[in-house]
Structure formats: C-alpha cells, structure tokens
Amino acid sequence: MSQAEPFPNDPMVPPELSSNVFISTIDKFYNWGRKRSMWPMMFGLACCAIEMICVAAGRYDLARFGAELMRPSPRQADLMIVSGTVTKKMVPTIVRLYNQMPEPKYVLSMGACATSGGPFKEGYNVVSGIDKFLPVDVYVPGCPPKPEALLQGLLKLFEKIEKQSIRDVAWYRKTAIEAVPVPVLGPDLIDMRRAMEIREMSQSPVEPAADPAQA
Amino acid sequence: MAAKAAAAPVAELTGPLAGLKEKFGEAVKPGDFEGVVINHDRLVEVATYIRDELGYDYLTSVTGVDYLAQNEMEVVYHVLNTRAGGAPLVFKARTPRENAVVPSLITVWPGADFQEREAWDLLGIKFEGHPYLKRILMWEGFSGHPLRKDWKEAYYEQDVKPFDSRWPGGHHRRAEDRVPYADNVNFPADFDPTVYTAQADAAVYERFKNYEVDERGQFVPKEAVKDENGNGKFQEYLETDELVVNLGPQHPSTHGVFRMVVALDGEKIMHLEPVMGYLHRNHEKIGERNTYIQNMPFTDRLDYLSSMSNNFGYALAVEKLMKVTPPERAEYIRVIMAELTRICNHVWAIGFLLNDLGAFFTPALYAIEERELILDLFEAVSGSRMMCNYFRFGGVARDLPVGWLETCRELVFNRLPKKVDELDYFLSENEIIRARCEGSGVLTGDDAVKYSTAGPVLRASGVAYDVRRAEPYSIYERFEFDVAVRNHGDVYDRYLIRLDEVRQSLRILQQALNQIPEKGEIQAGKKQYSARVPAGQAYGRVEGPKGELGFYVVSDGTANPYRYHIRAPSFINLTALGPMSVGQKIADAVIILGSIDIVLGETDR
Amino acid sequence: MDVGISILVWLVLSIVLVFMLLTGFAYTTLLERRVIARFQSRVGPNRAGPQGLLQPLADGVKLIFKEEIIPASADKVTFILAPLLAVIPAIVVFAVIPFGSSIELFGVKVPLTLAPNMNVGILYVLAITSVSVYGIVLAGWASNSKYSMLGGLRSSAQMISYELAMGLSLVALVVVAGTLDLNAIVEQQKQVWYFFLQPFGAIIFMITALAEVNRAPFDMPEAEQELTSGYNTEYSGMKFALFYMAEYIKMIVISALSVTFFFGGYREPLPLFLTQALPFLSVDHTPLLGPLYFGLKIIALLIVQVWVRATLPRFRYDRLMKFGWLVLLPISLAWVMITALVVLLRG
Questions:
Q1: What pLDDT sits at residue B251?
Q2: Intervals of chain B under pLDDT 50
Q3: Do residues B555 and B536 make contact, with C-beta atoms less than 8 angstroms apart?
Q4: Which domain holds residue C274?
Q5: Could you report the per-residue pLDDT of C151-208, keeping only the tens digit for each?
Q6: Does residue C30 lie within any of the structural domains?
Q7: Cα end-to-end span (Å), chain C
Q8: Per-residue H/E/C for C199-260
Q9: What is the dihedral of CA B361, B367, B368, B369, to 10 degrees?
Q10: Is the pLDDT of residue A83 over 70?
C-alpha cells in the first residue's frame, strides 16, 4: 500500500504523505488494541487503593473497559496506578517495579498524595509526588478521587494513547529507553540521578534565595 | 514548654496507686497527672507488681514524649485490667534527653515490642534489654529521630500552624523553592552518596539465623560464606536450604504496602519478620504542628476504611481535655456512624480474607456492594465517601440531611441483616474454608493478652474485652448488646467473630435509630475554628473495628497539641503475627495476616 | 483413498483444528471474563466491539506489541522454550479427539478426527498431558525467581500426584469399554453415557483434570495470594500470552476429553424418543451436527470450570497433596476393582 498511487481525488493528501494514511490505520488498530486491553498492576499504596478496588467492583466495573485483569506481576502490566502517598521508604520499590514493567507502560497518579504529596507533603518520610521519579501520564485529583474520577482518568489516558503513532513512539527505537535509577535509602532518600549534586551541596551548603515577597 | 508547669501536682494517690506507693516508697512518685512516675531503676520490678498483683495484665500503649524545655524524655505507659475493665492505669518513666535510656518492659508485657521500637525510632529513647531495638517505621540508617522537638524536617517552615506565610498575609512560597536541595531531603554535612552503602535491608535480615550478609552486601546462607573458596559447599548447602522470600511491600495479599520476610523450609515457615513503615506518613509530626481541629481530617486517613471511628477516638481525647459533652442528638449520630463504620470494615475484612483464601474476588465484591450502600450514607452526611471529617469537639459537623434516617433504617432493619445471613450461609460452612481456617494461626487467650492484641483478634481468643463495655464512652451504656467472644483463637474464629460483631452492631444501630431524638442540637456551645484546650494530658480510646484505638494528647494550653500519639491497633496486633505464623505453611501466613485485618495507614501512621 | 487426497484432507483438517482451537482459546478468555463478571454482579468487558466481542483481539494486539523482557539472571534458552513446551502439548492432544463422525465432502469421506484409527488413544492422551507440566516446571526454574521456582515445584508435585488417580479413573473406563480407541468409546455411548455407568470415574477424572491444568481451586502454581503470579511471574508479552494460551487450551482439552469419555462425545445430547421422533437431529442422520453438539458440550463444561473458579477458595498445598494421595487415589483404586469385578461377573 505504501507504494500505492497518490489519491487522485483527494487534494488534501500530498503524494509524499500518502504512506502516512496507511500508518494511521495501523495506528488506529494498534492504539485501539492497547487502549482496550489496559491491564493495571495490582498495586495499592494507601487510601486511594481502596477507591481503586471499588472501581473494580460492581457499581463502577472497570471490566467494561477491559481493564479488570489486575496483574500481580509488573511484567504483565501496562499501567501503574500510583494510588496513594509515596513515602521515601517505598519509592525505591516503586521505581524498581516501574523498571520491571515492559514497554509501552503508563503511569496514572491517583490522588493528591501521589501527585504532589497532598496533605502529607511536609512529612519527613513523604515524597512530593511520584513525578519526581517517574514520568506520569495522567493525574487524577482528589483525596481520594471518587471512583468516577478514576474512570475519567482512565478515559483521559485512552485519549492520550489514541494520539500516539507507532512510528514515533519511543519504545520501538534501537536506542533502549534508560531505566530510572533506583533511589537509595541513606541518611535521607538519595536520588541517584542527583548524587554528584548532593555530594557537592553537602560539602558546601548554600542557603536558598531569600523570599522575594518578604524582601 | 509549659505543659507540666500548668497543671498542679496531684497530691493524693488513690486506689491501686496508693498501694503501689506504699510498697515501693520513694521509687513511685505522684505526678501532675492521674498516675505515677516510677524511678526507672525499679521500673521492671514495679511493672511486674502492677501486672501480677494489681491485675493489670494488658499493656495498651507506650508513648514517648519529648519535653524540650525540661530537657527530659518521658515514656508513658497505659495498662489495663482485661478482667475487671475500667480506666487504664497510667505510669511514666522519665529520663534525661541526652542519652535517653529506659529499661525495656518487653519481659513483663511482650506487647511492648513494637511500641518500644517505635519510640526508639522516632524519639531516640533507648530501651535497655530490648532484644531487637531497630528502627521500625523509618529505615535503619536514617539520620535523626524525627519526633524530637528539635529535629526539623526538610520542608520545615515554623513550629506551629497556621504558618505566618499563609495567614493572615498569604504570601506562600512553594516548599521546593525554600529548601537547599529543592526537594524534601536533608543530608548531613560532608555526605557522599557515591560511596554510601545502604544498611536498610541488612538490618531486616539480621534475625534470620541461617543467613548473613557477606562483605558485598549480598544476603547468603551461612554455609556458603564459610567456604574458603568463596563457593557454597554443595552438600551442606542442600541440607540447610531455607528459602528466604519477601512477601511485599508490593504483593497482592499484604493489604497494602506491608512486607513479610519469611524463611521457608519447603512450604513451612521457619521465621517471619514483619517489616513496616512503607506508608509512614508522619501523622504525629504533622499532628503536632497542626491546630487541634486541623488534625480531624488527618485521623480520617489513619484507618482509611473506618474514618468515622478514628474521628470518634480523637474527638473523645480532646473533649476529655476540654471537658465538654456533646448534646444528645450528636451522641446518637456518633454512635450510629461508628457502628456503621464497623459493619463496613468487617464485611470488607471478611471479603478480603476470602480473597486471601483464593476465592477469586467474588465474596469481596459482594461485600463491597453492601459497603457502597453505607458509603452513600456517609457521603450524604459529610460530603465524602471515605474521608468523612465529620466529628467536631463537642458534636458533629452537620446535622443529618432530610430523609437520611429513613434510608438508614431501611438498610439497618431490612437489608443488612439479610445480607449478613447470606454471607454466613454461603461462607461459614464451606468445606475448603473450614479446612483451611480451622486450627491455623492459633493464638491462645494468654498470648493474645501478652502480645497486646486488640479487637476481634483478642476476642476470638476467648478474652471478652471490649472498650464499649469495659469503659463505656459516649452513650454506649444505654444499649443492649453482647460482647462477641469465640474461644479457639484460630483464623476461622476470627472470621466468625466479625460476623458476630456485625450482628451486634446491627442490634446497637436498631436501638439507636429508634431512640434518636427527632430534633436537637448537634454541637455543644458555639462552632469554633480553633478549639481552646486547657493544658493537661488525656488518653481517649474507642473500640474501633480493628481494636482499641487510642489517642494520647498532651496540651500545653496553646492552639496546637504538644504531643499527639496514636495507639494503632493494626500496628500492635502485628506483634502476634510472627508467633502465630511460625510452623505454618506459607499460604497460612497470608490468611493469618488477612484475619488480623490490618490497614497500613494505621499500622504505619 | 488416494494418498494425496488423504494428506490434503489431513492438512486442511489440522489447519481448521488449530484455527478453531486458537479462536476457542480467545473466546474462552472472554467467556470467562463475562461469566465471572455475572457471578460478581458486574457487566464484564463490553466496550471492545459489540458486547465486547473483540476484546480477545485487543488483548492479542496489545500482547504482540508488548516488550519482551528476559531477566538478566534467567537461563535464556530454557526461558524461551518453556512457554512453547506448555502450549504445544495442549494443542497436540486434540489429534485423537473425535469431534464428529465422518462427513461426505466433494465425494470424499472425511473422518472428523485427525488421527481416526489410533487404537491407543487414551495412552496417547495420558502421555501428552504429562509432557505439558515440563513447560511450567522449566519456566519456574529458568526464571531464577523464588516465586516462580515455588510455583514450578508445586506444579510438578501436584501433577505427579494427580496423574495417578486420573490414570486409574480411565483404567476403569477402559475395563468397561474394552478399547483404548476414543472413536470406539464415543460410539459405545450411543445409548447411555459412560457418566451414568462410571459416575465415580467421571467425577474423579474431572477433579483430577482440573488439578492437571492448575485451575481453581487447584491453581497452586500461580497462587496469586502467595506467589504473586507463580511460574509465570517473570514472563511478559507474547511469552506470557503463550502460557495464557496453554492454560485456556488445556481447559478446552480437558472439557473435550471429559465429553468424549463420559458425556457421549459428539453424539447428540438428546433423549432417545426425541431423536426417534425427529431423526434429523441425530448425528447418524446429519453428521454435520456432530461438531456442533461437541462444541456445545464443551462450552457447558467450560462454564462449569469458570463457575468453580468464581466460587471456591483455593486449597492449601499440603492438603491438596493429601487429598490426591489419601482420598482420590484409594477411591479410584477401589473403583477400578469394583468395575473389574462387575465386568467379570457379568461375563
């Protein structure tokens, strides 16, 4: 088909783009398959996990979207629903689980805590949002979000998937996608991507800039 | 702080405490609270006397308090008499802040285990004689003891709320912009992450006797290390091959982010080490910055399946200090909410126990169906399904909406009794359930008391202790109900007792719904944004669905609690998990954990 | 018959059979999801295509495009081989199962069995089903993960224990039938199903068959609550899909075997007077109905399996072994002896 003649009756498609028409039907099929078979990882962190379970139950029934097969193993999951407060003690495990998931994989941050730390942000054992470590695709606000909100988040994720094209997604390239380095539990949580920075700063602590509003 | 100066010392000791004073003389001093301070060189001796002679066989709460101004650490013990009931007996031990050491009471009450570790972890109080004094909520290697009053977290802004930056001016800056690492972290000076070796996991494996951590930080069987060639000797290796398996922190059946490290001989459990803290959200540190009323929504998120009874416990503790009593209608509303919560929680627990038994979600989903109906009621009164934030000091936040009572009556009188019978009918006599649950995870009554287990776990072992009966709070003495007791102490009884308790809750609900005044106040006094709480200390406790939920609050007369401690039943019940599981099969460990019914928000706080 | 034609027939038949099995597998997954949803008062997948009928296609598309991860510490060759070893035996068993009598097609008589005159059919079935456990055991071992390994170990022990009772339940059947040929066994059930002559044998066979394919309540090797995902914990993408496929094809296979042995195979599931009144309903009259009846019976048994999964909790591993050795084995042994005695006495 890619060698097919340009569509004579359709002036909108220039000859050099005609192959894209074919790609886009593949895309449609490809995206439809992924969208309709989004298996989340069976993975709950805190309060939000309870609402996540309720979404799978009779009243809301996640299964309608083909997403009820919650896989206990990250190897078989497509979607990580970060449902609850991400603590420093837990985040190495979460990052490791994310790294164990096969591409294409998505992250849905459910609730205020997973998004920003929420009501617990100031806590000494709380990470201010999972997006400090993982790329998040959809944020669902709420504390906890109602089941309807989670479903809406899922639909938003489907929308995002529909816009992707098999030609330019990152995961079929030759260069491997680098794994997120697993943070280490030291005197405090060590983000290994910032190891050098931390070393420098701990040796010569710099005071942060003064508050412009108070100055 | 002014906490201790504010209250006048209690001169006279009465009741059992007088006898204590007589027996031990100078070692026992009256304090400025309704209890005694015990000299810590005789603490174990006095504690043994309190247990054996005075009959206080149950240690309910161990709380560390940091009095910065007095340069003193205090450990507060609340002990109970499970046979006679009544209020807890309070005694304290004091020690200087620097190098705080107190003798461990683990030999007297083994249930002190986790709570002492917690006090060490968060406050840096050493408990002499504790066999395994490691961090429990944070990880080994973490710097500092966060609940000390002079310890400041990375995002520290000010000692107490409301922060000056937010109120009244309101020129708030993102916390990330204020702190040196632009993140919620702090490192000691001259810290070099590139050469750091983590100790967090090595400490966990320390108690596995056939294992050790070799010089590369790998966790290996001992025999393999001993070989001079660096290889495991094959023959010996085979003979003692225990497999160490990590269940969790991410695992389908640990009910959240709980972790069990088990050593397996085939399928048999040789040792089980519970590891927690993966959801440690610093309730207490945040709680001590918050104003009193600000803590109410945070209590919702403790045991997030039963927010209403958490509200209840906290409200009771603060009301004790404020000396207010809610009006009649509010009391009824509170009881109704608390009992609905219990039903919610127990049907959920039963459903998920069945899930742990491998019954592919079906019972759980039926349980959730009933829970949803109760959540609708909660949503109607409070605006939120799970995080109700409904109780206020001296009342409740809002009155019941029109028609609420009718819906509730329909549910309580007609639907739920039938559904409970249905659960009972389909599950209780199932062959596989009986075969798997009967006789597994047995906890004798003595052990249950010894390990300070609470709630259904305690009562399934034949100890009829229920706070609603032992020390009735609110208006519970007006209702007729039985304290559910079962005698075998196995998983099956812990399942049955939840059904019993649901039935009893329905009984209470039916009475309450018949007696509730049609109209009336729902709040004592005026609604206020900041509660005025006189200085003092109080321990408020309720019989939550998981067991005794206690709040220990120290007030120094300001707008914020000086100390805010939660006695979490989920956390302390786990003390019994190891002893119950050793010798059982790995599949049993999962259902034993399910039968304890933990919620991680409360376990880790 | 001409050799060429017979090879052609054989080729076409195998392609059709494999195609049927793969579609069957796909729709068994959907069947399970929909039926379980009904059991749990839910709806089940209904967005992909009309009534969710394209759900298996979506799952397939997704799994094909999914990244395949081979853990660094895994034994690579075995790791790749294991899913194939699980799925191939499951398909191959179907060679001896008759799914109809024979039909006339373009003047050629086509028997609706791949290997119609295999006179050691039952032996073949037993032999091949034993092979399929290797897939699981090797997967458990090759993954180099503790959960997988425990799953693999459980699986092999379980398989050995239940195979004995399964074999014995078939011995009783063979004693009555006097043949190992599955076609003959089906023909013998024209009047009465063997289920009624061999009730114990049938029940033991179905229980052990459930255990053979690791379905609930015997799903020890992948016991989610204990072992996360058991032997397939480390598998992703198409390799996982192959295990998935193996599991569901095995479900179809044991349903097909139960139908063949005990429920009259492709014979019409209708009372005698009805087929006498309406003779076109009988397979003898309309051979094309054979596969249809056969399929309906299989679906019925599949639903029973799903029902069991949606209802029962899991056994514990040691009790499972006890049940196999101390209950099923003695009963099936006794049943063989009783059957033999009865056959002997009746001459």
A1: 82
A2: 1-10, 224-227, 229-238
A3: yes
A4: 59-101+113-346
A5: 888 888 888 888 888 888 888 888 888 888 888 888 888 778 888 888 888 898 888 8
A6: no
A7: 39
A8: HHHHHHHHHHHHHHCCCCCCCHHHCHHHHCCHHHCCCCHHHHHHHHHHHHHHHHHHHHHHHH
A9: 110
A10: yes
Size of interface A-B (CB pairs under 8 A): 191
Measured between beta carbons, the chain B residues lying within 8 angstroms of A42 are: 252
- Residue ranges with strand state E in B300-456: 391-392, 395-396
C38 domain-assigned: no
Sequence spans of domains, chain B: 16-128, 283-604
- Tell me whether residue C2 is in a domain: no
Where would I find the H helices in A8-146? 18-36, 47-56, 91-100, 111-116
Residues above pLDDT 70, as percent of chain C: 98
The span from the CA of C237 to the CA of C62, in Å, is 8
Question: Would residue C265 count as lying in a domain?
Answer: yes
Contact A159, B116 (CB under 8 A): no
Which residues lie below 8 Å from residue B80, measured CB to CB, with a gap of 6+? B56, B57, B58, B59, B60, B88, B89, B465, B470
CB within 8 Å: B243 and C41: no
- Calculate the alpha carbon distances from C269 to C182, C208, C288 in Å: 18, 24, 15
Chains within contact range of chain A (3+ C-beta pairs < 8 Å) = B, C
Superfamily of the domain at B16-128: NADH:ubiquinone oxidoreductase Nqo5 subunit (3.30.460.80)
Query: What are the chain A neighbours of B297 within 8 Å (beta carbons)?
Result: 119
The distance between the two most distant Cα atoms of chain B, rounded to a whole number of Å, is: 83
Provide the 3-class DSSP secondary structure of residue C145: coil
Tell me the nearest-neighbour CA distance from B591 into chain C, angstroms: 9
Q: Does domain B283-604 bear CATH number 2.30.30.240?
A: no
- The nearest alpha carbon in chain A to C32 belongs to A69
DSSP state, residue B261: E
Structure tokens, B156:
């520290």
To test the contact with chain C by mutation, choose from A27, A32, A37 the residue with the greatest count of C C-beta atoms within 10 A, namely A37
Question: In terms of DSSP bridges, do strands B89-96 and B101-103 run parallel, antiparallel, or are they unpaired?
Answer: unpaired
CA of A73: how far to CAs of A42, A80, C62, C232, in Å?
Answer: 8, 11, 17, 9
Determine whether the interchain pair B184/A195 forms a contact, defined as Cβ–Cβ distance below 8 Å. no
Instruction: Report DSSP letters for A111-156, one per residue.
Output: HHHHHH-GGGTT-TTB-S-GGGTS--SEEE-SSSPPHHHHHHHHHH
Who's near A202: CB < 8 A, 6+ residues apart? Answer: B187, B188, B189, B190, B191, B192
Please give the helix or strand (H or E) that residue C296 lies within, else none: helix C289-311
Give the rounded distance of the alpha carbon of B99 from its chain centre.
27
pTM of the model: 0.87
The count of structural domains within chain C is 1
C313: contact with B, CB 8 A cutoff: yes
CB B43 within 8 A of CB B74: no
As given in the structure block, the two tokens for residue B424 are: 């009972």
Closest among B513, B547, B515, B509 to B338, alpha carbons compared: B509
Instruction: Give the C-alpha separation, C160 to C215, whole Å.
Output: 16
Over its length of 347 residues, how does chain C's per-residue pLDDT go in tens digits? 578 877 887 888 888 888 888 888 889 989 988 998 988 888 888 888 888 888 888 888 888 888 888 888 888 888 888 888 888 888 888 888 888 777 777 777 777 777 777 778 888 888 888 888 888 888 888 888 888 888 888 888 888 888 888 888 888 888 888 888 888 888 888 778 888 888 888 898 888 888 888 887 887 767 666 777 778 888 888 888 888 888 888 889 889 989 988 888 888 787 777 777 777 777 777 777 888 888 899 999 999 988 988 888 888 878 888 888 888 889 989 988 998 898 888 87
Across the interface, whether the CB atoms of C224 and B358 are under 8 A apart is answered yes
Backbone torsions φ then ψ of A140, nearest 5 degrees: -115, 115
